[in-house]
Amino acid sequence: MKIDLSGKTALATGSTKGIGLAAAKGLAEAGADIILHGRNPDEVADLARTLGARGTAVQLDTAERGA
Fold first, then answer.
1. Other residues' Cβ atoms within 10 Å of the Cβ of residue 24
2. Alpha carbon distance 65, 42 (integer Å)
3. How far apart are CA 2 and CA 51, in angstroms?
4. pLDDT in tens, 3-46
5. What are the structural domain ranges in the chain?
6. Which residues have C-beta within 8 Å of that of residue 59, sequence separation ≥ 6?
7. Contact 53, 30 (CB under 8 A)
């Protein structure tokens, strides 16, 4: 089954390792623009470069309500 997410934006937390990384890559392959999040900002930035125009790196603390 082929899913087309063109024109959609997805948030992938934990996107530098494991399930989060696989999800980010799968979403990008399906055409979504991805907002990438992870604990290591350098790894997130590297992934954004790898995904090209599809990936945007953000740094935020998901444990902090005001972030």
1. 30
2. 23
3. 19
4. 999 999 999 989 989 999 999 999 999 999 999 988 888 999 99
5. 8-40
6. 37, 41, 44
7. no
Confidence tier at 67 by pLDDT (50, 70, 90): low
Show the tokens assigned to 32. Answer: 């979504």
| Cβ burial 33-55 (10 Å sphere, 16+ → b, else e) | bbbbbbeeeebbbebbeebeebb
16 exposure class (CB count in 10 Å sphere: 0-12, 13-18, 19+) = buried
SS3 41: helix
**Which residue type is seen at 26?**
G
What the block records as the tokens of 7 is 């024109």
Token pair 């350098």: residue:
42
